[in-house]
Structures
1.
Amino acid sequence: MSHPKIFISYRRNDHPDTVARIYDRLVGRYEEQNVFLDFETIPPFTEFAAYIRERIHESTIVVAIIGPRWLELLKEKHANYEEDFVKIELSLAIELGKVIAPICIVNAQIPRDMDLPPELRPMLKYNAALLPSGRDFNPNMLRIMDGIDQSLHTSPKPNAEKIQPISQRTAALAAYQRGRTQYDERRYDAALTSFTEFLGVFPEDSSAFHYRGMIYMMRKEYHKAIADFTQAIRFRSDDAVLYHNRGGACFYLKDYEGAIANFREALRFQPDDKLAYYRRGTAYLERQRAGDFADAISDFNQAIRLGYKTSEVFERRGLARMHEKDFNGAIQDFSEAIRLKPDEPLYYFQRAEACVRKKDYKGAIANYTEAIRFNARYVEAYNGRGLARLALGKSIELDVSIEDFTQAILYGHDHPMLNTFYNNRGIAWINKNNPKKAIEDHSHAIRLKPADPIAYRLRSEVYQQQGDSALAAKDADEARRLEGLQSE
């Protein structure tokens, strides 16, 4: 009499000692060559996934051993997008129409329908056997093996129509596993092809849509990423990670409304997601509607409370506090960002800007100087330091403010604010009683941006101080004309 081929599906870190006892009893009854257990029967140097698929194809029955951590590990791997061979094994067995024999060990319970992904729910039609680990183990195991024999005599054979497309499904499962390997190896183009192949056969697999969406994110194809994350959410609507990543794609498209909505959903399902608070706060900061800065501060506070204490979160909260005119709070945040990342010139620059808003021009000059120390071509810092020195109004500061604006002009020859740097130096020249140089700088600003009324207004004032009323009036008229165009 020929024995059935038995495939044992189990989780290695969920009571492997009990699994080994089950294997021994099955081998005692059905002989070793007819019972497959991966750590006992896989030859060395064999490709694991392919060998597993072959053994399931050959099997008559799949024994699904469900331990106390079986469901927990299923959800954990699902949430972390880790490869789950138990899920793959049972999905393939169901696709092939194999008999499933669930055995619950160590007081484990059979999962509920709602706890399983759709592809595993058909296994629930098989009545699960309970196998305590005490002294009744052997008689219970005999009863289970009798049940296996009976199920093989009463279960209908899978028909040819169901088996026919299995090779295609098997190839698709192989494509998914290949895609995971390619993704981990950062071979994203190849992984994209593999996941697309898999989705052609399994169009309701949320994990594949998620991975492909992440690849589109890395390729900066954000609309495609959003489409894939949306598909994944259709099949896994309670997954915080999917909403989080879709929110990130919306943010990169400057769809701050969409980003905020998605981060809100992510936090509904995972309320301790510190990164979601940080990113939603950043979206509020960028959107800049009424109340957004207060909401941004609230989100940054939550991120920090949950342990997300990076230089970036303090810098962002400092910016939000600047908008709320809490300059002391902003300075504290920029100082904390500097403590965490002391060689970042941007944080010194922003602390300098907060000092300017407090009219602490000496503090501003000191911070602009630090920013320049770490970035000798920091044109905005040269311009800011020049303005702070102008604000002090001391003659010695006027000389060095001109030097600062000159440095901004030198390093910012292709900067969009180059005309502003010329205008600021023109103002410094006026304060130094050098109207000729001032007119040269304002004229240069006009050549760079002829539609900007500010340079005309400033040059008009210089002409007026020189007593040239005609040229002053001409520039004033042009300034008014351009201001009128801007207001239309």
2.
Amino acid sequence: MPREDSSWDWDRKSRRYRGKDTGRYMSHGQVTNLRDKYTDARRTTIRSLVRETLPLNAKADPLSWNVGVRVLREKGWREVERSMIAQYTFGRGGTNAMTSADRVIVQQMLRDQKGYWDRFMMEALQSPDMSMEYAANRATMYADASTAFYERGRETAFDIRLPGHPGDGGTECLSRCRCSWEIVERKTKVEAIWHANGGDNVCDGCRGRAAQWSLLTFERVTEGT
């Protein structure tokens, strides 16, 4: 995840990141790679937290399991929330680009995700056969869901509304999606292209989105028109 004090900056006019010293814009691939590296790092953090908090399985030590789940419900959610806010902020153009409207969007999205997280934690309390590894795998899906927050931030940066986002749960890969929207500002329009990233691992739903959303155009209202 890029940091505010790194060697790049957000260019408001082009709505892209560029090098502070070189002036060169980061490519779509470079930015998507940063998005995914951050997601992977957060997956590792959340998986480690689950392993540190829960015993091997609920059946072997139900008391420790129940105590651990209650701890994880709070500590785990804080890590998930941090991931999602950071990704939206990155997509939006950094902390300085965030507005009150962005914060409302983020809070609405977080509210939905918190509901899913709480249901997962309730399931963990009520499932005597759940293992720590299963819980860890489920928990990492919430780190993966931060991808959708990044893409929503990108959408908002360009002041457009896209029909779907990578990681929004609308395809077979659910939150594990690594596809991306490439959004380009033109003089009188904005163009958006869905890239099905992942080679042979791309699910059918994402392939369908790539075909259906190979080029979306959003016209800008210019002065004198």
3.
Amino acid sequence: MIVRECRHEDVAALERQLPTGRNRYHDDRYRRQCEGLSTYLVAWQGDVPVGAGEVLWQGAKEPEVRDRFPDCPEINGAAVTGSGWASTTTTRGRRRSTVGSDIGTPTAGTSTATTTSTTTASVTRSRTPAGS
């Protein structure tokens, strides 16, 4: 599995494989990425998108979370379909995923979830918005 920043041509493939219907979430997330507000990441199994998630650089959407962690980006809507896990390995019968940030703030941290993947990804914010 490869995880990379969303490109304009990826939006149609995302909508075909991971449909959002009238909500058009992929379009919205890609637009925010182009505006420099987020990074929209797409997980690929070969040439098929199997998941996506957005790093909101301005912080959490929810005010109570933003108040508690004012300088911490939010990883939002991260999900991978079942086909994305087909070739992963397990440790003691459990799949595992670690998501971390290292952006030089005291509130940056690491979160671990079980029953997902053993893949670890690192995200750094680019200085130039996508599409520029």
4.
Amino acid sequence: MRILGVLCALAVIAVFASESVAADQGEAKFQAMCASCHGKAGVGTTMAPALVKNEFVKTSKPEDITKVILEGRTGKDKKYPKMPMAMPAQKGKLKDDETKALVDYLKKLSPEDAAAKPAAAKPAAAKPATKPAAKPAAKPTTTK
């Protein structure tokens, strides 16, 4: 019975370790293949849009994001026409597990719950308390 407990504990550790490795792999692939256009933190550049809190990434299925990564977006499929570059196809440059890790990383940059929750209203800035203006001092009167 004790051996079964140890085996279960090892299985749980292995699952968490593999998730951590996949997350690291996704970020590493992003830095190596995407950051030069989309920015080191995914916040976009003049060459490519932000992927942080990106509506497409937030709301799309992983297979749709995978399709864009592998096939790119050029010509009529180019989503951001004002950007100077098209999204180049990455087919043949990524293994399946690398593509999945990259998609998982992008999803973490743009979680779906961020799309569902409206932004909290900022409280109105408090006006600083002001003292009433001081009355000018009366001029002393002089007698001659």
